[in-house]
Amino acid sequence: YSQFEFSYNFPLADLRTDYHNFMSVGTGVDVKTDKNFIFGFHFNYQFGGKVRGETLNESFKELIAKGTNYFIDQKGVANNELSVDYRGLYFNFVFGKIFPVSKYYRNSGIIVEGGVGVLQHYMHITNPNNAILSLKGEYSKGYDKLTLGFSLYQFIGYQHITKRNLLCFYGGIEFSEIFSKRQRQYDFNLMKKDDNSYFESFIGLKFGWIIPL
Fold this sequence. Notes:
213 residues, mainly beta, two-stranded antiparallel sheet, 56% strand
């Protein structure tokens, strides 16, 4: 079956250092065996997380008005149209099992999944009309903290599948742990490449709609 899902996520560890809570939408394809084992592939697009004030001021310290979160444009004026937020792409291979809670609904019940994947995330910089030349085009890559890492994934929740397709859904809590490194060759804030290793994590409240195939 295929699925469409939404989750609201709470960053932890090093991810929480830079970002506030964020959302994600995604899709995937799962295969369920006769014994209720599940194997699948999921993809999620993450967005909407605000950059924490401390990180914003540290990462763009030469471009922000002192004591504020406003960027200074080429005219020397505070620009409130320029913004920075969290964006990510998350790919997972998952496996798990459904434990039925009723003999009448063998395809429904408690679902437990684990998996491995890859998460790439970065600071998405909106710079209307290239108001700040230091963030124009390729220059923005020196600020965006592009990060890539191997992830471990867990999910526990409830899945409900019936012969009436519109009533097929699932919901629960997911956990992710990511072992990551920066990908840019040069960080303008550090004035060198960031070679540090990071441990990032987040917890998500996930809800999805299932389309049996």
